[in-house]
Design goal:
heterodimer, A: mainly alpha, B: alpha/beta, 4-stranded antiparallel β-sheet, 7 helices, globular
């Protein structure tokens, strides 16, 4: 049993490394993500100009950019395998759980990097985007990234098998991500308004639960999605 | 090791491709699957390899009466197929290393990969990106990938497509080695390849 777990962990880590190396060479996802983040942030900045939006509006704009950036980039993990015909190769060498957790880990890393970049960009171009409670903000972005990556991974696996990949992804993702986005926006607003760390305890619980439920459900579902 | 197919049926969109295929193969057997285009040769190979599920029926690999788990089976199968692709952005060697690590293969692959790359005349090109390979070189690399973990069951779908005469000779050597080592299944319509095997399954369409 422990040998099986050990080989699964090694396989998952190897798949994460393979995807990272592949991404560094092909820039399948990073280019799409970065172009969207930069253009969206600049357009928002041009729209706001000198106005001073409220904390809730700023947190909404922050997570809108994250949501659509994720929609443009995170599906690539599975879509690129399907388009290049390498899905079958992966099926031959790895179990469904290794593929799922390898892709999930890669999407988590990608989402964390993307959200860090968006945070830096917002801080630079929006003078009003000032985080008062840093711990709340960082934990919210971290837990939000986990949930976003988890939901995006299973949805990417589903839409990779469909013919209308581009349009289907945000359509499927939106209802599933609404609870996550509502919670992260509320917690981010608290961080921008300077509320104490403990006040967002309910939001943290929702975000942790969301990640665990989506990940567990995805793990159970993945074998049916992954195999033709 | 024994391969047992029981009443395998495959349908796409409720259209049957083939129905109720049953057969048993053991270590001394080699099987050629023939049939016209669209008869389901590649589909049956995918089902036997475990990458495609049958609509009905079962595929079992038995080792001294115990049925192997999917994880155990995965380590015992090698597949060469036109539907199988390797990663263009990696070199030949990187492909073999990454895929071996994902397989969590405990066996060191350095010696075996060198032997196979030399056998298929790819050793000098091992650090070249696969995207620079010709279709024949890609086909040779698929063989190296399929044979690297010394599979008990070797599945070859159109094995000599894109290969030159030198490549075909190497494939013939591999086939002879595999017939001594384990089960061989070949899907082809080329009669010179069909004679490699001692059993034949003709898919006539449904």
């Amino acid at each position: 049993m422990s040998a099986l777990v050990s080989s699964s962990l090694r396989g998952t880590y190897a798949l994460l490394l393979k995807d990272a190396q592949s991404e560094l060479r092909t820039r399948y996802a990073v280019n799409a993500l970065m172009m969207f983040v930069i253009t969206a942030a600049v357009i928002v900045q041009l729209a706001i100009r000198d106005e001073q939006p409220s904390a809730s509006v700023l947190s909404g704009l922050f997570w809108v950019v994250i949501f659509f950036a994720a929609m443009s980039g995170l599906s690539r993990t599975f879509v690129s395998e399907e388009e290049r015909g390498t899905s079958m190769t992966l099926q031959l060498v790895a179990s469904s759980s290794v593929v799922y957790f390898g892709k999930l880990c890669f999407n988590i890393v990608l989402t964390l990097v993307m959200n860090a970049a968006i945070t830096v960009l917002y801080t630079v171009i929006f003078p009003g985007f000032t985080v008062q409670t840093t711990s709340t903000f960082l934990l919210t972005v971290f837990l939000g990234s986990l949930g976003l990556a988890s939901a995006s991974t299973i949805l990417a696996a589903i839409i990779a098998k469909a013919n209308t990949k581009g349009t289907l992804y945000p359509v499927l993702a939106f209802p599933i991500l609404i609870p996550l986005l509502m919670t992260t926006m509320r917690a981010t607003t608290r961080a921008l308004e300077g509320e104490p760390f403990g006040d967002a305890g309910g939001e943290y619980q929702v975000l942790v639960s969301y990640f665990m439920v989506i990940t567990a459900g995805s793990y159970l579902l993945f074998d049916y999605v992954w195999k033709d | 090791m024994k391969l047992v197919l029981s009443n395998i049926t495959k349908e796409f969109n409720r259209r049957p491709i083939f129905r109720d295929i049953s057969l048993e193969l053991d270590g001394a057997d080699s099987l050629v699957i023939t049939g016209k285009n669209g008869a389901g040769k590649s589909t049956l190979v995918k089902i036997i390899s475990g990458v495609l599920s049958p609509t009905r029926g079962t595929v079992e690999y038995r080792d001294e009466q115990a049925v192997l788990t999917p994880d155990e089976v995965r380590g015992k199968i090698g597949l060469v197929s036109p539907y199988l692709q390797l990663y263009d952005e990696f070199s030949a060697m990187e492909n073999l290393l990454y895929l071996s690590r994902i397989r969590a293969n405990s066996m060191p692959i350095e010696e075996e990969s060198e032997r196979l790359l030399r056998q298929f005349s790819l050793w000098e090109k091992r650090h070249d990106y696969v995207r620079t390979f010709s279709s024949g070189m890609k086909q040779r690399l698929k063989f190296v990938f399929a044979l690297l973990h010394r599979p008990h069951v070797l599945l070859l779908d159109e094995p000599t497509s894109n290969l030159d005469s030198e490549g075909i000779k190497v494939v013939q050597q591999v086939v002879e080695q595999q017939k001594r080592h384990g089960i061989l299944i070949v899907a082809t319509n080329v009669e010179s390849e069909a004679v490699w095997c001692n059993k034949r399954l003709h898919l006539g369409g449904v």
